[in-house]
């Protein structure tokens, strides 16, 4: 894999600090990445079924957000 491919698949530094080695993050962590309150994320999910174009995985009563999808969304914004 060359350097360019590696940089395209990399998780942004701020997100990697929040996520650690996990594939999914919690709603408060997701809110921290997008610099909003967790309630804003929950409301968006409740009204539209997604937040910032990302649909969460629901496990029990918890919403868990894909780090890979968040990475793609952040790269689109740049």
Question: Mind explaining what this structure looks like?
Answer:
Helix content is 56%, strand content 14%. It is α+β, with helices and mostly antiparallel strands. Strands 1-3-2 form a 3-stranded antiparallel sheet. Helix 3 crosses helix 4 (38-48).
Question: Which properties best describe this structure?
Answer:
single chain, 78 residues, alpha+beta, Arc Repressor Mutant, subunit A, three-stranded antiparallel sheet, 5 helices, 3 strands, 56% helix, globular, disordered N terminus
CATH class: Mainly Alpha
Overall outline: globular
Name the CATH architecture.
Orthogonal Bundle
Structural class label: alpha+beta
In the CATH hierarchy, the third-tier topology is known as: Arc Repressor Mutant, subunit A
Low-confidence stretches: 1-8
Q: What is the chain-wise order of helices and strands?
A: HHEHHEEH
Tell me the distance between the termini: 23 Å
Main sheet makeup:
3 strands, antiparallel
Helix-strand blueprint:
Layout: H1 3-9, H2 13-19, E1 24-26, H3 27-34, H4 38-48, E2 57-59, E3 62-66, H5 67-77
Antiparallel strand pairs: 1-3, 2-3
Helix pairs in contact: 3-4
């Amino acid at each position: 894999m060359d350097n360019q491919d590696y940089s395209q698949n990399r998780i942004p530094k701020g997100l990697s600090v929040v996520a650690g080695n996990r594939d999914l993050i919690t709603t408060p962590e997701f809110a921290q990445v997008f610099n909003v309150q967790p309630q804003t994320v929950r409301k968006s999910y409740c009204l539209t079924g997604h937040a910032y174009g990302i649909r969460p995985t629901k496990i029990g009563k918890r919403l868990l957000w894909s780090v890979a999808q968040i990475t793609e969304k952040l790269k689109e914004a740049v």
